[in-house]
Amino acid sequence: MATEIERKFLIKDDRWKTDFSGAEIAGIAYRQGYLSTDTDATVRVRRQGDQARLTIKGKTQGISRAEYEYPIPLHDANEMLDTLCRKPQIEKIRYRREEGGLIWEIDVFAGDNAGLVVAEVELESESQLIDLPAWVGQEVTGDDRYYNVNLVSNPFKNWS
User: Fold this and answer.
1) d(CA 156, CA 133)
2) What value does the mean pLDDT take over residues 111-126?
3) Rounded to whole angstroms, how far apart are CA atoms 18 and 20?
4) Rounded distance, CA 20 to CA 87, Å?
5) 78: which residues sit within 8 A by CB, 6+ positions away?
6) How confident is the model at residue 131 (pLDDT cuts 50, 70, 90)?
7) Is the dihedral of CA 113, 118, 91, 23 positive or negative?
8) 3-class state of residue 87 by DSSP
9) Looking at residue 62, what is its pLDDT?
10) Nearest 5 degrees, angle CA 35-CA 92-CA 72?
11) Minimal CA–CA distance to 94: which of 45, 49, 145?
């Protein structure tokens, strides 16, 4: 079984936007929607640039959950996003940045979740220690509001 072990954080400032040489990091546009948002398993369709994937994720336990991901034809993904997936959908630009030997993924949300910026880091074990980059703020790993699947039913624009 494939397992995702992930921690999420808010961002303090914009220092993440440039690499160590001072060059601006490029991002990839993402559009994703959900075919199922059941609490025991979610089924997501995601378009990232010119690639598409179907992902099934199990229920989160601690900071881990089962995850299965498969490439699908881009045309099929676009059709599912347009006709089958719940609205509003998740729109974001994802930036990848290596720091401290780990790959950090920074999501800058758009649409109904504009204004939200979250950094995620995948780990090899739940007990793995990490050094937080200076631009990383409050941890929100256990806060369900920040799960992409929940941002569909309760988008950031509705938070008070």
Assistant:
1) 25
2) 96
3) 7
4) 38
5) 47, 52
6) very high
7) positive
8) coil
9) 86
10) 45
11) 49
Question: What tokens were used for 118?
Answer: 């979250």
CB–CB of 68/56 below 8 Å? yes
Selected catalytic residue, list 30, 34, 95, 146: 34
List the structure tokens of 77.
């993904």
Instruction: Please give the backbone phi and psi of residue 62, each rounded to the nearest 5 degrees, phi first.
Output: 70, -120
Instruction: Give yes or no for a contact between 84 and 35, defined as CB atoms under 8 angstroms apart.
Output: yes
User: In this structure, what token pair is assigned to residue 146?
Assistant: 């920040």
**Any idea which residue has 């601006």 for tokens?**
24
The secondary element (H helix, E strand) that includes residue 150 is helix 148-153
> Are the beta carbons of 100 and 133 closer than 8 angstroms?
yes
Question: What whole-number distance in Å separates Cα of residue 120 and Cα of residue 23?
Answer: 21
List pLDDT tens digits, range 44-101: 999 999 999 999 999 988 889 999 999 999 999 999 999 999 999 999 999 999 998 9
* Mean pLDDT, range 10-20, rounded to an integer: 89
Q: Coil, helix or strand for 68?
A: strand
Burial of 123 (0-12, 13-18, 19+ CB in 10 A): middle
Reply yes or no on whether 30 is catalytic.
no
